[in-house]
Structures are given as structure tokens and as C-alpha cells.
Amino acid sequence: MARDDAKCTRVIPIRMHRRMYYRPLEAGCDVGLWLFGLAAAAWVTHDLVGSSSGLRLAGAASAVGVLSAGTGLLAGLYRGRYQRGSLDEVISVGRAGCGTALVLAVLGGALLPGQRAPLATAVGGATFALLAMIGARYMVVAVRQSSRPRRSSGVKIIIFGAGHAGTALVHSLARQPGLRYQPVAFLDDDPAKRRLRIGGIPVLGDRTQIAQVAAQTGATVLVIAIARASGSAIRDLTNEADRCGLVPKVIPSITEMLSGGARIEGVRDPRITDLLGRRPVATDLARVAGHFAGKRILVTGAGGSIGSELCRQLHRFRPAELILLDRDESALHAIQLELYGRALLDSDQAALADIRDPTRVREVFERFQPQIVFHAAALKHLPLLERYPAEALKSNVWGTSTVLEASAACGVESFVNISTDKAADPMSVLGYSKRIAERLTAEMAERAAANYLSVRFGNVLGSRGSVLSAFSAQVAAGGQLTVTHPEVSRYFMTADEAVQLVL
What we know:
The structure is a single chain. This protein is 52% helix and 13% strand. The chain is α/β, with parallel strands linked by helices. The strands form 4 sheets. A 6-stranded parallel beta sheet has the order 9-8-7-10-11-12, with helices on both faces. Strands 2-1-5-6 form a 4-stranded parallel beta sheet, sandwiched between helices. Helix 7 links the parallel strand 5 (221-224) and strand 6. Helix 2 (54-74) runs antiparallel to helix 3.
């Protein structure tokens, strides 16, 4: 530890010194470019005839230097606000240049009396200076990129998608030479992008040339870098990559990156959610964020598929307390570890309880006094509940009643019962038990002075016990898929969509 600390104390001051010297140097360079631009403009317009006093010229040059550095500071050029070569930096350079030109146009006569065309000189000087300042910055970017060591080893990848996502992926990989991937080519179906070079990587064709480009470059991986790509597009490209002997990968979704769970260079295998036959439906959660912030929220069944996703999304709204209630200690451990980065199970965040136990449930509610309750605990496997209907009665009916009574007793503000589409026209034990739970919730809504409601959704993609989980296991085992009917149709939503709708 001592050696690590020593390393840190040596490295940090070096970086700070570099920044301290670099920014004044940048400001000095801009001042020099301004003086050069004004001198060039004055030479073109013959504006300094009769005003050649060395003392006056020196005073004017000093004033221009102070003015240029001051407007640059006001525009944020020398504060490290903008990424080098970005559009934001170009706009900032433009603002600083326009501000300097405006002041010079107004005060030019006072700086050097006897000028013939102060406005033309100011505009011409600003034009020369702006072009030179922007060119100098892009030259720095080009020199930095060319000086980066080119990796001769690594997994060669073809990137499909020469848009913003593909460009960001290449730039991110270039900034981190230690990563295992080496881009060697782009592919894109847009004819306008042919013959482009992005970060030094050429666009060599469209999807019909995957095999040809793979043979030409020696690539072994195809990375699909299309923001919000449809499930059918990913499916088609994945199949084409498999046919050409390439390993298909995809970039993380926007949601994954915004949540901090992934970065764009963290390419991964396609998931079942990527292959959904439609675009995921995005819900505007900003409208309801204030309803959860600073509140005490309790989630029953917190370790389940829906309960755990509820906890993930609620955690982002910064509630005062998020109480995770479940009877499965391993599930509690997993979700607490994911949310908080530690899971010693020694804090009040995790409540081990069975909703079948009224005494224990009342203890939990009296202890935490939740303001909002999401009731996701239930038994849901239809065939098993057909064999053991009494278990459905104990958990889905009596358990829900227990949670409802405890919520009313402690004055819960909002109660949401997670139900299922099978309760709409019940034909099974699961459907009947969940329909009764809905009626119990509706009855409590009439009795209690608070919001009590139920929400239903159908097949959740990849949830525990989902038919897709069964199909995946059957494929992995090399067996056949078992379906109830050859013409059956199933309609899925992702867990993320389901929880957003619940919220």
C-alpha cells in the first residue's frame, strides 16, 4: 500500500504541471494567431498607413493579446471544458472570435488613431484568426492520433454500422490500446458512406460483402454497432455472421450505458432481448421520478424476476429507503450485491420474511413504516399450481391479504399489486388465485384512504420460468423444442418494459 501511495503522489503532480503549462501555451498561441490575422488583414486593406509608431503598435498588440485571452477565458477555451476537436470546442472558438472582433471593430480607432478601415481590418483579422485557431486545434488532434501506438495484435473485428455508435466505438478503442479488440474494417448499407475512413478504419462495403471483407482482413468477429437496432436486423446480421464463420457481438444498449452498467467498448454476445421482433417501448419515467425520490419503498418478492428489476429501477430514483423483502436468502444476497456493491446481509436493506407469516410481515411493516409498497411476491408456475392448488391459495391469496392488511395498518400511501393476464379470464389455479388477489386489492382500495391498484402483464422475456428459458435449455441439451401447438403465437415484453409500465 505504501508503494502504491508513493506512485500516486509522483504521478498526479506531473499531470497537474502539464495542464498548468499547456493552457497558458494554448492562450499564447491564440494571441499570436490573432496578431498575425490582424496584421495580414491590415496589410491587405493598407490600414496602418500613417500609424506606424512602434510604441503605438506595441500598445495595440498588448491590448489585442489581453482582449483575445479574456474572451477565450469567458468562452471556456482555457478551462478544460471541451474535448479537443469537438463541435463544442469549435463553437467556443467562434464565440471568442466574434467577441474579440466586435470589441476591435468598436475600439479599433482608439487603439490606433488614423486607421482607414477599422471594421474591414477587424472582420478580416477575425476570419484569418478563427481559421488558424480551429486548424491548429485539429492539427493537435491529428498529431495525437498519429502518435498513438498501433496495435499489431488483438482480435480483429469488423464493425457493422459507420454511424455515431460505430464511430464512438472506434474512438473508444483507440483511446484504450490495452483492450483486446482491433478494428480493421467498417461495413454499412448506406451507399453514401462508401470509401469513408473513420479513425483510420475504412468502410469496405455492405452486408453482402461480410465474407469477402473477413477473408481480406483476417477478422474473426463482427460487431453490430447500430444504436436502437431492431430485433430483425440483429437477427439477420447474426445469422449472416454465423454463415461466414464470424462470431457475432453487439454494443451495449443505450439504457445499459446510461445506467452505468456498461460502456460502448464493452461489446457482448447478442441476448434474447436484442432479438425481440420489435423495438422496445420506452416510457418517460422522468414524470414519475419525484413520486419515488425520498420515499420509503418496500418490494415483496424482491429477489424474483420482476421484483429485482423493480428494485434496480427504483434504486435510481434515490428513495430514502428501499426495503427488499423475500423468503429466499440467496436471492436477497444477489440483488443487494448488485444494487449496493456489497451484500453482508447485516443491514436493514434486506428483510427475510415469508408473506404467509402474518406476524412476521406485521413486524417488518411496523419496523420500516413504508410509504409505497410493490407486491411482487407470488407463486406463478401454472402446471405446478394445478397439482398443488393449496399452495397457490396460501401464497397468492392469503399472502396478498396479509400484505394488504399490514399496509393499511401502517398507513401506506400507494400499494401496487403485480398481477398477470391469466387473471383476466381465469381458467387455471394460477389465474383464479391472482384474480382473487386483484379483488382483495380492489376491496382494500374502497376501505383505505390511499391508492391501492393492480397491474397485469403477460409473457416477460427471459423471466424465471419463461418458456424461452425452457427452449434455451432444450437447445443447449441438443433436444427438440416442446410446444403446446405448432401454430402457437406468444407475445413478449422485456422485464425493463414491464417494470417501467408498473412504475
